[in-house]
Amino acid sequence: MSGLKVINPGLLSLIQDAGRYGFYKAGITTGGAFDKYSFNWANKLCENIDAATCLEILVGGLVLESNITTQVAITGANVPIKINDNTVDGWRTHNLVPGDRINIGYATGGCRAYLAVAGGIQCPLIFGSASTVVREGLGGLDKKGQPLKAEDILPCEPTASTTIHRVPEQYKPTFDNEVTEIRMLLGYQQHEFQTSQLDQFFNAEYTISQLSDRMGYRLEGPALAYSNKAMLSEGICLGAIQIPADGQPIILLCDRQTIGGYPKIGSVFSPDIVKLAQLMPGRKIRFKAMGIEQAQNLLLQ
Amino acid sequence: MNKGFPRVNLASENSVIVYFSERPCAKTSRLIANTSEQLKNKLSHKLIDLVPSYHSLLVVYNPLEINYLTIKNEIYSIASEIPNKVLSAGKSIELPVYYSQESGPDLQRLADHANLTIDQVIALHQQTEYIVYAIGFAPGFAYLGEIDSRIAMPRLSTPRTSVPKGAVAIADRQTAVYPSQSPGGWNLIGLCPSPMFDPSQKPSTLINVGDKVSFKGIDRNEFIQRGGLVESISSIEQ
């Protein structure tokens, strides 16, 4: 099969596209690239149509070998990249010929890198998407939710294009904030929380816990109290901030369950999900409230 | 429509949650199913997806196509007109269950807890037509309610590491059929040979939120005949 062969899958490398939509009623979650900003740039650099299937590489350690002439681009986290013995930059296109090896080292800033290939990875779809959701056993090369493993082949078509594109410096993200500000909208059960608790929530710094993954980020900080009454399970949107009985917030992310029964104080503004995708456990965040008009106007710009 | 309902709350910059009543019931489930259909027809591409659940409906929309105030008004007008219309009924489905101690290792404990015989527990489980309140937790996992209060029982204090596909189970006043093998803390009372979730089929799930489900006892032979696996029986953690 023509494409890129996995020599070393690294820590956790997943096939992802824009995600799975239209199947919430069957209990099937969205999945999809966590940092959509970097994912979109990687595709753009390869002149791919929107949301072509890419790799999401957690931390690094991935080694691939090409058996075709093609182009690749790596965006997202700051990772050392080598093609054969040459150190190369991220956020630009690279030409590959058969036999070339790409080696992605461990992230020094951010934690998720995206690798796009010209024409996209030709991965079969299940429920309209290639996205890997390990918990549901859906997506990926075998359609059963497996992460990449050694000897896998990422099927790709060769390309004749050799045009190099680069992302302008001002569009590249930086990952050096001591505390990252995350914008959120109050919503859902916000009225279950007293004003004093809301004040505390917005003044606190929260640390991202070790128990954080694509399903959700658990936060550690001052516990939030509320009138702890039993709640019926209801639909959970991307970025919903739920407060379980111990008062420590959990932000529900791409691989979240579709329904849940904890009160939610509101939801993260989706462009800031991108920032969360690049924050390792141990990093700190602070929430800032925004209104719905402001949020929707920003999206329209 | 109950006073104060429907109520539309903001959920995120591209979703709202609609509440239809204080408590779930058959009528609310039909309202949710009918509102979902109408929203799909009326909003088409402006709508991204819907999550129906017990007494609510999460509406995820494309904010580049429709804004918060407009969608809120659309939902109010659709949801408040619906009660005046004839509600379409959901499907009614009968699922076969092989109830036995070998396929339902918690039957004895449940019977002891309820001060009933195993046969009485099995009879009570079959006597109600259940509403599909929600589908979630895992693809195709349907929460059915409510079971007779006499056979209600809390979840296991230590969940099993593996529950086989097709396991019929009880937790509090709800019952469910595990759509695939997974860890689980519900009390197991039998095995159902009908697949609840099959990604290769269209639709992939047998039932939708708002449908009705009843159970009918079958014996071991019929379980196997209808496609049930002996391994499902032998693999159950007792």
Structure description:
The complex is a heterodimer of chains A (301) and B (238). Chain A has 301 residues and is mainly beta. Helix content of chain A is 11%, strand content 31%. Chain A contains 4 helices and 20 strands. Chain A has helices at residues 36-45, 195-203, 273-277, 292-300; strands at 3-9, 12-16, 54-58, 62-66, 70-78, 81-83, 86-88, 93-96, 101-104, 109-117, 153-155, 179-186, 206-208, 216-220, 234-235, 240-242, 250-252, 259-260, 264-268, 284-289. In chain B, helix 1 (26-43) packs across helix 2 (68-81) and helix 3 packs across helix 4. The model of chain B has no long low-confidence stretch (mean pLDDT 93). The A-B interface holds A 21-28, 126-127, 135-138, 143, 185-188, 232-240, 257-260, 264, 266-270, 292-293, 295-296, 299-300 and B 9-15, 17, 24, 36, 48-58, 60, 63-64, 67-68, 134-141, 143, 180, 197, 199, 203-205, 208-209.
Distance between the termini of chain A: 43 Å
Helix content of chain B: 25-40%
What gross morphology of chain A would you assign?
globular
Number of alpha- plus pi-helical segments of chain A: 4
Features:
heterodimer, A: 301 residues, mainly beta, Cyclophilin, seven-stranded mixed beta barrel, 4 helices, globular, B: 238 residues, alpha+beta, Gyrase A, domain 2, four-stranded antiparallel β-sheet, 29% strand, elongated
Task: Write the topology of this structure.
The complex is a heterodimer of chains A (301) and B (238).
Chain A: E1 3-9, E2 12-16, H1 36-45, E3 54-58, E4 62-66, E5 70-78, E6 81-83, E7 86-88, E8 93-96, E9 101-104, E10 109-117, E11 153-155, E12 179-186, H2 195-203, E13 206-208, E14 216-220, E15 234-235, E16 240-242, E17 250-252, E18 259-260, E19 264-268, H3 273-277, E20 284-289, H4 292-300
Parallel strand pairs in A: 12-20
Antiparallel strand pairs in A: 1-4, 1-11, 2-3, 3-10, 4-9, 5-8, 5-10, 6-7, 6-9, 12-19, 13-14, 13-20, 14-17, 15-18, 16-17, 16-19
Chain B: E1 7-12, E2 15-19, H1 26-43, E3 47-53, E4 56-61, H2 68-81, E5 92-99, H3 107-114, H4 118-127, E6 130-135, E7 142-145, E8 160-163, E9 167-171, E10 174-177, E11 182-184, E12 187-191, E13 212-217, H5 220-225, H6 230-234
Parallel strand pairs in B: 5-13
Antiparallel strand pairs in B: 1-2, 2-4, 3-4, 5-12, 6-7, 6-13, 7-10, 8-11, 9-10, 9-12
Helix pairs in contact in B: 1-2, 3-4
